Amino acid sequence: ERPLATFAMFAYNQEAFVRDAVRAALAQTYRPLEIILSDDASSDRTFEIMEEEARSCPADVHLVLNRNERNLGISGHMNHVVDMSRGEFLVFVAGDDISLPQQVRVSVDAFLTDEHKRMALHATVTNVDASGKFLYERWNPHRDLVDSPEAVLDNDVYLTGSVLTVRRSLYADFPKLRPDVVNEDKVIAFRCAFFGGAIYVEEPLVIYRSGVGNSTLQGDILHGRDDPEREARYVRTTVAWRLSLLKQFQLDADSPALAGRVTPALRKKIDGMASSIALVLQFIDAPAISKLPALL
Questions:
Q1: pTM: predicted TM-score of the whole model, two decimal places
Q2: Dihedral sign for Cα atoms in the order 158, 210, 17, 33
């Protein structure tokens, strides 16, 4: 009997795109399948559109419709949906992308035939613009670096988060994501590096809308970079995100899931990087020449 897979869609203020995303979810060919359509307290019609499309859900699919009472943010939303899910494999997708019908089937098949029993999978995606016009196929530049925690740390490695599937234990056995974590694809890269890395599927499995996501540095923060105030926000945001990621690595390194796997040298490197980034953030918030020597 084939294992249950959960197809989890995360949406927030994506009324312009979520209808296509839900239709693609309902078109998945894999069985047995659980589909969770989850809205993070959108202020537009995102959830109403999800409800409308959910009426067409196939009878043999277990459907869960969820609307958070308040906005939980990226990591809080993921923690909540993982807690609701039942699948052995968790497929994560965004409410503005389009999954190809075979995404779940190809992903689960790859796990079941993987002799290394790896814990995560990602793939190539097809990038399109907001209107759906083809831009290019995007492969992950870090796909050969995810079998080493040291390489993940040194190269700021990420998996392709828009087309990510994990074994349930990669969340269930680890600490929950910190509230300030937004780069969950980098957290997964770190975790799976201790278990042989990640499977990479060369064929595109998702149509990714470039430049419209809520979990990237798109939008106002990157427009008009010649504006000093916007530039300052951009710099601080990227540094703060890096610090939150390193703090999550510290939590994960202390968890029973990685008992005996984290070397003293690796733990020292994580702690050192976190301390350095914290000093950089402190300097950004309150620049003072007297603090500069501490950064060297």
A1: 0.91
A2: negative
